[in-house]
Fold:
Amino acid sequence: MSASESWAARPTVLELHGGMSRAARTRLAVQDLVEGMRLWRLAWTLAWLDIRLRYRGSMLGPFWLTLSTGVFVGTLGFLYAELFHQDVHAYLPYLALSQVLWSFLAMMVGESCVCFTSAEGVIRAVRMPLTVHALRTLIRNVIVMAHNVAVIVVVDILFAVSPGWHAVLALPALALWAVDAITIALLLGAFCARFRDIPPIVASIMQIAFFLTPVLWVPGQLGRYTALLAYNPFYALLQIVRAPLLGALPTPAEWLSALLYSLALCAISWLLFVRARGRVAFWM
Structure:
């Protein structure tokens, strides 16, 4: 029996909704997560279909985002290097990498809000793990980010920047990002399915976080207030990926902060997912 068949053979949500113990809800949430991961090929197919439908009729497809990111870095990079009194040869590679990574974070958080509501028809018609939709959101944004990597490569070639062996250290950080991405999709997907006015609030928070996080500016510009960055979860998550790709090493404090914030996010998301998983279809 395949994973999808075994999932379809389970009792209906309506049957499960009455008088379930916490242990039973936890067991079903674990099964949802495990079987959702087993269906990663389905999630990949759905994500690729999303990309094709989103850019249907477009000549450049996702490369329009690559072009806009390149224009942003190329035009504002020189301006901000002058305003911030930065060496343009060091600042432009920093800005290109920061902008691509932040775009992924911002798009992932934004699309997590509609992770389930955008798949309302599928959730109502087909019984499959909700984790598939979270994984679908992650894969879709990874595909888009892969197109934007071209901007980083071009800038690094132009300015002869090479991270060297430090780039390998970005792999565990990217793995942590993948876990956090699925976690935030399950969290915001369920929460925003219940409360439809949350997405605009999340969008406003991300806009504020963009200016509070060193993306356009470098951490050293804060001077004696640099220690305050430890309270910004986006900074820690950004730095553990960005530093190795710039040929540096993240500090132990940055890694510790990223892990602690990720653990807190996973705990909150899991508690909500266990409680809300069986109700998401009724909130559509």
